[in-house]
Amino acid sequence: MQSTPKTTLIETKQSWFYFDIQGIWEYRDLILLLVKRDFIARYKQTVLGPLWFIIQPILMTFLFSFIFARVAKIPTDGIPSNLFYLCSLMIWNYFSQSFSNIAGSFIANAHIYQKVYFPRLIIPISLTLSNTFTLLLQLATFFAFFFYYQYAGAALSFHKSMLYFPLVYLHTLALALGVGLWMSALTAKYRDLSHLTQFIMQLWMYATPIIFPLSEVPASYKWIILLNPMSAIVETTKYLFLSAGGVTPLQYSGSLILTVFLLTTGVLLYQRVERTFVDTL
To answer: Are 195 and 274 in contact (CB under 8 A)?
Structure first.
């Protein structure tokens, strides 16, 4: 006697505040598969493969050092300019790349959404994790420069504060995920906003203490820079590795609170949009 096929009905949850943590956990293997897929897609048919993600920040570091440190004479808190800029770019590149990838995730993966069900947050989460590999490569590059300048006599040393960097990484991941989900949800409805992504990143970078130290910002304007949650992240990264810069616990807490707000509202908005996104394709 032939058995009757089992039918599973997937119902959309109507509550704004529903968050399917269990569903994401059940599809954790899919996250790993998507991370692997993204890794292969990035390096397939490339001459240098992962080396591109080392070359790019090095070239940007040398360019910044020449223009801003040598020509414009912008101080770097007593740190060798190459180390100062590379340290800033390392964490910024992770945030920027993750944000850009997530912002276009609805449109880029529409063909997958139309064919099979899975928690849609799986893809943005996988993108932040796949970019972690790039961050690790750039972190290794930073330490290579660190060793060189230490050997050359710069006042640099290893200390326990470096061990707190994973916490800053998680903070950056949460912020990239939060603002990325906001942008992804908005571009799903208003497609022309996708053209603003790179422009937003360029403006955001210049509003972040990457090419200048926060210590050089006049006190009357410093609060404006600190409204940017990435400012506290970049300054803290430089403090952990180079003992330069840094923000007060209150200033970092402000960045953390804003990150939690953006992540929470980003998830809620993203899940709201996903219910009707496929129908509007």
So the answer is: no
pTM value? 0.89
Q: What backbone torsions phi and psi does residue 11 show, to the nearest 5 degrees?
A: -105, 145
Q: In the chain, what are the domain boundaries?
A: 21-39+48-280
Residue-level pLDDT at 85: 97
Roughly what angle, to the nearest 10 degrees, separates helices 81-103 and 52-64? 130
Per-residue pLDDT tens digits for 46-67:
667 678 888 999 999 999 999 9
Are the CB atoms for 34 and 122 separated by under 8 Å? yes
SS3 sequence, 193-213? HHHHHHHHHHHHHHCCCCCCC
